[in-house]
Design a protein that fits this description.
The complex is a heterodimer of chains A (535) and B (328). Chain A has helices spanning 49-56, 79-85, 102-106, 122-135, 152-171, 189-202, 215-221, 244-252, 310-317, 340-345, 355-359, 366-370, 388-401, 418-430, 448-463, 475-481, 506-514, and strands at residues 11-20, 23-33, 38-42, 64-69, 72-73, 87-90, 115-116, 119-120, 176-181, 206-211, 224-229, 232-237, 274-283, 287-295, 299-304, 327-330, 333-335, 348-351, 436-440, 467-471, 484-489, 492-498. Chain A has 535 residues and is of the alpha/beta class. In chain A, the strands form five sheets. Chain A has a six-stranded mixed sheet, sandwiched between helices. In chain A, strands 18-19-20-15-21-22 form a six-stranded mixed sheet, sandwiched between helices. A four-stranded antiparallel sheet of chain A has the order 2-1-4-5, covered by helices on one side. In chain A, helix 6 links the parallel strand 9 (176-181) and strand 10. Chain B is mainly α and 328 residues long. Classes of the chains: A alpha/beta (535), B mainly alpha (328). At the A-B interface, helix 10 and helix 11 of A face helix 8 and helix 9 of B.
Chain lengths: 535, 328
C-alpha cells in the first residue's frame, strides 16, 4: 500500500441531502477525499450509495448541501459538466457502444479534439487510445478491435480505463476524481488483480471513490472507508484498524437476527402435501435436469452465483420460458402446457427480480397494478367487464393490510418507495387464492424496515399453506427464511441443504456455490455482507 | 356537442395523464378552429355544412376507434384504409350480387374482423413488428380490393342500405353520425370498463409486466387487431352507403387521417397513454381542418402541408419528452 497522502482535500461534501417524496435517501452526508487516496464506500442496498454517486457526478441535484472540488465550489448540473471538471464515473451497467471499435469508445465524446476539418484523425486517436490502455496495463487489448469482440469482463476493464485515464490523457485533468460503482462485480479472478493494479497506478493521478459489496476488497484497497446506512454516514474508518465483522455490523446494525426473519414462525412441514413438483426440467443454455418439490407451507430457497441459472429457473417455473423434458405438477395435477396464464389460473404467482421493468408499471395506479393478474377471475364481471368497484375495494383493503405508506388506489406507483412498490407487487398475488409463490430477489432495493415486513408477509403466506420458492442473492435471507435450500451451480442442483432446524452457515453455502470453480463469476449488485471472497 | 369528457364521464381516467396543458390542448384546438373558420368563412356556420362535416367526420371516427386500441397497446395498424376499401368493395358485391340490403353490413364487419385477426396473428405469433405486418397487408388488402373493383367505382341500388348513412332518423342529423357516436360511446365503455380495454393499457404500458402476471398477451393483441379491422370494415361499408358506390379512392385518406386523429387526440404512439375517448377530439380537429380549409378555398396540396405539420406539432407539444432519452 502506498503511503497515505495528506493535505487539503480534493473533493469535499458538506451536508448532502436528497429526498424522494417522503423518503429521505441521503441525510446530511459530509466527507472529504484527499488527493491521491482511495475511499471505499460500503452500505446495504438502499443505504444511499448510488444517490451519493449520482449527486457527485451531476446526474442528481441535491436538495441541500454543497460540494467543492480542488477548493472551488462544485455543483455539476449534468454528467458532462462533472466530466469537464474532472469527475468521471463507471456505472454499474456497461456504457460502451458494442458496435464501434475500442478506441472510439475510449475517446467517446472527445472526437472534436481529433478533427482536422471534416476529417477525423484516426491515427492520432489510436495513439492516444494505446497510451490509455498501456497506462491501464491493458496492452493486450487492440484499440482497433470491435468492442463487441471483447469478453464482458474485458469490456468492464476498458470502461474503467476510460474513466480513469481518458480525462488525464485527453483533457489534461491533473487531479481527477474517479467514481467506481461495483467495478469488480463481474470481473474474473485474474482480472481483479489487473483492476487492483490499475487502482494503484491511478492513485498517483487522482482520488478514487469506490463502492463495493465485497468487504475484503474494500479493506484491501481503500485508504479510508465510509459506511452508509439508511442515508446517513454512520462511520468513517481506517481500514487498518477495522474488520469485516465490524463493517458488516455497522452496515446492517445487526447480526443475522432470528427475529428479523421470523424464524420462530417456521414450522415443520415435512408431512405436508407437495404443491409444486418439477421433474427433470431442462432449459438449453440455462439449467439442466432440475427436479424439485415444494410442500404446502414450505419455503424452498434457491441460491447460486449470477450465472448459475437460478433466475431462468424461476422464470421457467412461472411458465415464462419454454422447457424441454420432464414434467411439472401443480397441486397434484400434471400440466401438459404450463403457460403463465394457466399457472396463474391454478394459483401460481411470480414476483420477478426487476421490479420496474417486469414487476409493475410504475406510471399506473396502485389499484391497476394490484389487480393486474386477476383479470380473468377476481376482476371479471359479466360479459367481459372489469369489476371496478371490487378493484378499488380490494386495492384499498390491501394498501391498508400491507401498510403501503402514502398509497391510495388511484395514486401511481412511481411515487412510492422501493419497499412499498414491492408490497404492491406482492399484493397482486396475496389478494388471490394462492398455492405457490415464486419470488426472485423480493427485497432487492428495499429498505430494512420494509424488508422485515415482507419477510413477515411471507410467513403469513406459509401459515396459509402456500408453498414459497425463494430465489435470492442475499445469503442471510436465503438461510433465515428457507426450510430447505437448493444451491444451483452451472445450471445443475449442486446440493440441497436442510435449513428447518439448525441453520447452515454462509460459508457452507458459498462452498456449495463455488465448489472447484476458481474463476467463478460473482453475482452482481447484491447484499452479500459477510460473504467474503474465499482466500 | 359537449366534448368535456375527460373527467365527468370517466372517473378512472387514463392513468398517465400528460401535463395539464397538453391534455387540454386538443380541446382548445377544436374551439380555436371553430372560431377561426366561423370568422373567416360565411358558409361554415350553417346546418348544411355541419351535417356534411358530421358525415365526413363519422367515417373517420369509426375507422379510428378500433385503431386507437392498437396504438394504445403499443402497436400500429397501417392497414385501416385498405381494410375499409376491401370491405367496402365486398359490401357492394353483396348488395349487387346477393341483394342483402341492410344485412350487407354483416359480411363487411365480419370480413374486417377476420382481416384484422390475420394481422394480429402474424404480428403476435410471428413476432414481427406490427408496423411491418400492416405495411405489408395494406398493400395486399388494397390490391385485392382494386382487383375486385377492377379499378372502377361500382354503384349499387339499395335505398335501404343508403339510408343507413344518409337517412335522418333525427332531423338534420345523418344516420352515419348516430352510428359513429354510438360506436364511440360503446368503445369508451369497452376501453374503461372491460377486461379487454384494461389489458390494452397494460400491454401498452408494460408488456413484460403483463406477461409475468400471466396475461395472455398474444391473444389480446389479436383481439385488438380484430377490433381495429372490424371497425374499419364498418367504416368502409357505411362510407359506401354514404357515397352510393365503392370506388378505388375509398379509404385512401384514412391511413394518414386515422393516425393523425389518434395521435392529435392524445393517444401516444409509445403505448399505454391516452384512450378511445380522446380520439373523438382528434377526429374533430382533422375533420374541421379539412372542412374549413376547403371552404376557404385552400388548394388540396396546401392542405396536405398544413395537416402534416399539425400532426408533428401536436406530438411535439403533447409528448412528455423528458421520459424519452432515445427515439428511433
Amino acid at each position: 500500500m502506498t503511503p497515505r497522502a495528506t493535505g487539503a482535500p480534493l473533493l469535499e461534501a458538506r451536508g448532502l441531502t436528497k429526498a424522494y417524496g417522503a423518503g429521505t435517501v441521503l441525510d446530511g452526508v459530509s466527507f472529504a477525499a484527499a488527493p491521491n487516496t482511495v475511499v471505499g464506500i460500503v452500505g446495504e442496498n438502499g443505504a444511499g450509495k448510488s444517490t451519493l454517486f449520482n449527486i457527485l457526478c451531476g446526474v442528481t441535484q441535491p436538495d441541500a448541501g454543497e460540494m467543492s472540488l480542488g477548493g472551488r465550489p462544485f455543483r455539476p448540473r449534468n454528467l458532462a459538466e462533472a466530466n469537464r471538471a474532472g469527475v468521471s464515473r463507471v456505472f454499474q451497467e456497461q456504457a460502451l457502444i458494442p458496435h464501434v471499435r475500442v478506441y472510439e469508445n475510449l475517446l467517446l465524446g472527445h472526437e472534436a479534439l481529433f478533427c482536422h476539418g471534416p476529417l477525423v484523425r484516426q491515427r492520432a486517436m489510436l495513439d492516444v487510445a494505446r497510451r490509455i490502455l498501456s497506462l491501464a496495463r491493458l496492452e493486450a487489448i487492440d484499440p482497433g478491435a470491435p468492442t463487441s469482440a471483447l469478453s464482458f469482463s474485458k469490456r468492464q476493464l476498458v470502461e474503467i480505463a476510460r474513466a480513469c485515464f481518458t480525462p488525464r490523457e485527453v483533457l489534461g485533468v491533473e487531479q481527477g476524481v474517479v467514481l467506481l460503482d461495483e467495478p469488480t462485480a463481474s470481473l474474473l479472478k485474474e482480472e481483479e488483480r489487473a483492476f487492483f493494479d490499475m487502482i494503484g497506478r491511478l492513485r498517483a493521478h487522482a482520488s478514487v471513490l469506490f463502492v463495493s459489496h465485497r468487504l475484503t476488497e474494500v479493506l484491501q484497497v481503500s485508504d479510508r472507508v465510509l459506511v452508509l446506512k439508511d442515508g446517513c454516514l454512520v462511520a468513517e474508518l481506517d481500514p487498518a484498524s477495522t474488520s469485516q465483522r465490524e463493517l458488516h455490523s455497522l452496515m446492517v446494525g445487526r447480526e443475522r437476527d432470528a427475529d428479523y426473519y421470523h424464524e420462530r414462525r417456521q414450522r415443520d412441514v415435512r408431512g405436508g402435501p407437495v404443491v409444486l413438483r418439477a421433474r427433470g426440467r431442462t432449459r438449453a443454455g440455462a439449467f439442466t435436469d432440475v427436479s424439485l418439490e415444494v410442500r404446502a407451507g414450505e419455503v424452498l430457497g434457491i441460491g447460486g452465483l449470477l450465472e448459475s441459472g437460478k433466475e431462468a429457473l424461476g422464470r421457467a417455473l412461472a411458465g415464462l420460458l419454454p422447457l424441454t423434458g420432464g414434467a411439472i405438477e401443480l397441486a397434484g395435477a400434471p400440466l401438459r402446457a404450463p403457460t403463465a396464464a394457466r399457472l396463474v389460473a391454478r394459483g401460481l404467482g411470480y414476483v420477478p427480480a426487476e421490479r420496474l421493468a417486469d414487476g409493475m408499471i410504475p406510471d399506473f395506479p396502485i389499484a391497476w397494478n394490484m389487480s393486474l393478474a386477476s383479470g380473468a377471475d377476481l376482476m371479471a364481471g359479466p360479459l367481459g367487464t372489469w369489476n371496478i368497484a371490487r378493484e378499488q375495494d380490494l386495492a384499498a383493503r390491501f394498501i391498508d393490510l400491507l401498510r403501503i405508506r402514502g398509497g391510495t388506489p388511484a395514486r401511481s406507483c412511481r411515487a412510492l418507495s422501493g419497499g412499498n412498490q414491492q408490497k404492491v407487487v406482492l399484493g397482486r398475488w396475496l389478494c388471490r387464492d394462492l398455492r405457490v409463490l415464486i419470488l426472485d430477489n423480493p427485497t432487492r432495493g428495499v429498505d430494512a424496515g420494509a424488508k422485515e415486513e415482507i419477510y413477515g408477509l411471507l410467513r403469513d403466506l406459509t401459515d396459509r399453506g402456500v408453498a414459497v420458492v425463494l430465489i435470492t442473492d442475499e445469503l442471510l435471507e436465503l438461510i433465515g427464511l428457507s426450510d430447505r435450500i437448493a444451491i444451483l451451480r452451472r445450471g445443475r442442483v449442486a446440493g440441497v441443504v436442510d435449513a428447518a432446524g439448525r441453520k447452515p452457515d454462509e460459508q457452507a453455502m458459498i462452498r456449495l456455490m463455488l465448489a472447484s470453480e476458481s474463476d467463478a463469476v460473482w453475482s452482481v449488485g447484491t447484499d452479500r455482507p459477510s460473504a467474503a471472497v474465499p482466500a | 356537442m359537449t366534448l368535456d369528457l375527460r373527467s365527468a364521464q370517466i372517473p378512472h381516467a387514463t392513468p398517465r395523464e400528460p401535463p395539464r396543458l397538453a391534455t387540454l390542448l386538443p380541446l382548445i384546438s377544436v374551439v380555436a378552429l371553430v372560431l377561426v373558420f366561423a370568422a373567416t368563412s360565411e358558409a361554415f356556420l350553417s346546418w348544411r355544412n355541419f351535417s356534411g362535416l358530421a358525415a365526413q367526420a363519422s367515417t373517420l371516427l369509426l375507422a379510428c376507434l378500433g385503431a386507437t386500441f392498437v396504438i394504445l397497446m403499443g402497436g400500429i395498424d397501417l392497414s385501416v384504409g385498405a381494410v375499409a376499401l376491401l370491405c367496402g368493395a365486398i359490401t357492394v358485391m353483396c348488395l349487387n350480387g346477393l341483394d342483402l340490403g341492410v344485412a350487407a353490413l354483416v359480411p363487411a364487419v365480419a370480413l374486417g374482423g377476420l382481416l384484422g385477426a390475420l394481422n394480429g396473428t402474424v404480428h403476435a405469433y410471428g413476432v414481427i413488428p406490427s408496423f411491418v405486418v400492416t405495411l405489408g397487408s395494406l398493400s395486399v388488402f388494397g390490391g385485392l380490393a382494386l382487383q375486385l373493383l377492377q379499378g372502377r367505382a361500382i354503384r349499387f341500388d339499395s335505398p335501404a342500405f343508403e339510408d343507413l348513412a344518409i337517412g335522418q332518423l333525427v332531423p338534420m342529423v345523418p344516420n352515419i353520425f348516430l352510428f359513429a357516436v354510438i360506436a364511440w360511446a360503446a368503445m369508451v365503455f369497452v376501453n374503461f370498463r372491460t377486461r379487454f380495454g384494461r389489458y390494452m393499457f397494460i400491454i401498452g404500458g408494460g408488456e413484460a409486466v403483463a406477461r409475468t402476471a400471466g396475461i395472455p398477451v398474444r391473444r389480446f393483441k389479436i383481439y385488438a387487431f380484430a377490433v381495429s379491422g372490424a371497425m374499419a370494415g364498418l367504416a368502409g361499408a357505411l362510407a359506401v352507403a354514404r357515397l352510393g358506390a365503392a370506388g378505388p379512392t375509398l379509404g385512401s385518406e384514412l391511413l394518414l387521417n386515422s393516425l393523425a386523429a389518434i395521435v392529435v387526440g392524445g393517444t401516444s404512439l409509445s403505448g399505454g397513454i391516452g384512450g378511445v375517448h380522446r380520439t373523438l377530439i382528434g377526429v374533430l380537429i382533422i375533420a374541421l381542418l379539412d372542412n374549413g380549409l376547403n371552404l376557404l378555398g385552400v388548394n388540396q396540396y396546401t392542405q396536405m402541408v398544413v395537416k402534416g405539420a399539425v400532426v408533428v406539432l401536436a406530438v411535439l407539444i403533447g409528448q412528455d419528452r423528458s421520459k424519452f432519452s432515445v427515439v428511433k
